[in-house]
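#struct-queue
[09:14] JT: dropping the first one here, sequence first, then the structure tokens:
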Amino acid sequence: MDAIRHLLDEHALIMSELAELRGTVADLAARGEAGLPDALPVLARAGDLLGTRLESHARKEEDALFPAMERVIGEHGPTAVMRMEHEDIHGRGRLLRDTLRELNEVEHPLIDATREQLRQSLAGGGSAATLRGIAEQILQIIDMHFYKEEQILYPMAQQFLAPGVLEEVGAAIAAMDEAEAAARRCLDADR
């Protein structure tokens, strides 16, 4: 497996799946609260994408590609920045999922103390703006992050890593893909 091509293909797939979120952000900007009923399912799908496919992609980089690069260029360079950005993206994804859960589970014990504040926020029009803001931040960070990986990090990997090392990275990524597929098959069989 060509590790870099595989990671680039995942970027393209993730970006195509985020296209719907981009449209929803624009719709929320135009329609505000009126667009929220249409936006919620899209935001939920985006939250799921961030918590599954994007986290899986980041794991492949952090567990397979980055260690190989760090053996050559050290741990405090571009891979350290990419790890921090991964954490930022994952944190914002969790914030999006948590915000959606709070909107859908007003009776949830974690928000009992702030139920009235939440209801006032929803009545005052804060939910669409809050969700739009979180989604905009996520999209901006992912755009910037993928750009840096595609224009700087991946070319560095191709330049500095020996072909045999890149093959090892590809094999590790393929093994991760197979493990995820096996886990999905087990989950599907349990249903």
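[09:21] JT: and here's the second one, same format:
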Amino acid sequence: MIKDILNDAESRMRGAISVLRDDLAGIRTGRASPALVERLHVEYYGTPTPLQQLASINVPEPRSLMIKPFDSSTIKIIEKAILSSDLGLTPNNDGKAIHLNLPPLTEERRRELVKHMHHRLEEARVAVRNIRRDAHNDMREFEKEKLISEDELKRGEEDLQKLTDKYIEEIAEQGRKKEAEIMEV
């Protein structure tokens, strides 16, 4: 029973880390990365559609992205979505593709991005702690109902704490990597 609770908690914690990775990939650094715009939603026939389903995204140079729509009639709506996003980039449209040039980040903008990233890291830590709390409550419930012994509860709590510590450290590691990437000039 405790094993089931721990397995469930671990898979939910892994999910929280996965969401964090996707979030961090979307935060702009000095380098061009398709992850920057892949999840950008474009209004396509009245439906918000991720850009990666409408176009191929390439990195021809370290500081530029090329977005080539599969259907050339979507080029204007893709351009509009980029302009209305919070990326702060101006698209250049040559009729066949959209080119995005990433200007170097200012020191102030880097600090803002790091602050934003720390907010995302805290959200992930809170998610992991909430998962721990839920699993802990389930264990206590089992103990109250005499489905597990007090010793099993203690061991389960220790294992749950180790699991939580492991994922909190994983979040910190992701944060350190991304911060170094953002601050790199």
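[09:30] RK: nice, looked through the second one.
[09:31] RK: The two ends are 51 Å apart (CA to CA).
[09:31] JT: good to know. Strands lie at 41-44, 47-50, 55-61, 64-69, 91-93, 98-101.
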